[in-house]
Amino acid sequence: MLNALITSGEKTAILTLPSDSFTLQYELAQIGIRKRLTEIPINDDEEQDIQIKLFADSDIGNNLAVLFNPTHTLEDANLCAHMVENAQPELQEEIEQNILIGQYTSPQALMEDIRSMTDGLIAVTVNYYCPL
Prior knowledge:
The chain is of the alpha+beta class. About 45% of the residues lie in helices and about 15% in strands. The chain has one domain (about 1-120).
């Protein structure tokens, strides 16, 4: 869904998001980054030690990538991509359409919308019939 171009010094890696945390930590360690995912901001500024640029091969992924700014971390991007990719099949089309039209202003708004949509699917109504 998303690709993260991560540069640390002279070393560069391209990681696919979503991915499990252990794989991401291993790939980051290979290029000399020993920080947790929650400590790595999404920042493409050349003055930073670690630079991260998000991009994708699809319109949905590119619209998702623009939601992230330096206040968000690599963990946020991974979690958001995971939630979008693994949303219930009934909700997948609606979520993708909302992303394409730019309904969301932040990844938190997108994740909250997915949670509320999923909660709406869980509602169960039970009717009991008891003949007298």
